[in-house]
Amino acid sequence: MKRRALAVSLAVLPLAARAGGAAAGAALAAAAEAGDLAALRRLLDAGTPVDARDARQRTALLAATHADQVEAARLLIARGADVNAKDDIQDSPFLYAGARGRLQILRLTLAAGADLKSTNRYGGTALIPAAHYGHVETVRELLKTKIDVDHVNRLGWTALLEAVILGDGGPAHTEIVRLLVAHGASVDLPDAQGVTPLRHAEQRGQVAVAQILRRAGARP
Question: What dihedral do alpha carbons 13, 17, 19, 23 form, nearest 10°?
Fold first, then answer.
């Protein structure tokens, strides 16, 4: 009887959950990306590891973050998903949420133990691409933590430099510069070529940004 019951139990498990490896990871990632909570629960309850990887080494949580599926991310984190698990291009749920302004998921990852020192493939923390892409509320959220405001990536850029060099000088990037300066960002820390944030702002005609930097004591 026990052997028959086990056979019946195995028969009703989702095929992907029993297959293991990339098949299990792909099924879980697809459900997460679609925001299919029922499928996620079925797969997890059937034994699919919550941090199973797909062919791109993404966990389901990273797939949910890509698609901004907040409730799927919430479920996966509640089931123990690793918010710092990286894929084959060094993105993690925490890093991607920061870079792409997935604010609700970012908050979930921070509450679940996001590694503030983790870096992406460019050697940057979550704060740097958030500043680059003009995600004001994401930057504001990250600055509530102990993240290194003056971390330098492999390009030789801090978040402040990236906000100026890759920003457009508009309201979002100007506010990000203001936030970074208010949180102690070094206004005179230059890039790898020795060019300061103020010089970059002046070269790009970013008048409001340059004014913020001068008021903060930036050298001409």
Answer: 140
Distance CA(6)–CA(15), nearest Å, equals 15
Going by C-alpha positions, the residue among 191, 183, 187, 189 that lies closest to residue 216 is 187
The pTM of this model reads: 0.89
In angstroms, the Cα distances linking 167 to 118, 132, 173, 217 are: 23, 6, 6, 21
- Residue 172, both tokens: 């979002």
| pLDDT one-digit tens code per residue, 175-210 | 999 999 999 999 999 999 999 999 999 999 999 999
- Residue intervals in the chain for CATH 1.25.40.20: 14-115, 117-220
Taking the domain 14-115, which CATH number applies?
A: 1.25.40.20
Instruction: Give the domain 117-220 fold.
Output: 1.25.40
CA distance 97 to 91: 9
Cα distance between residue 169 and residue 210, in whole Å: 9
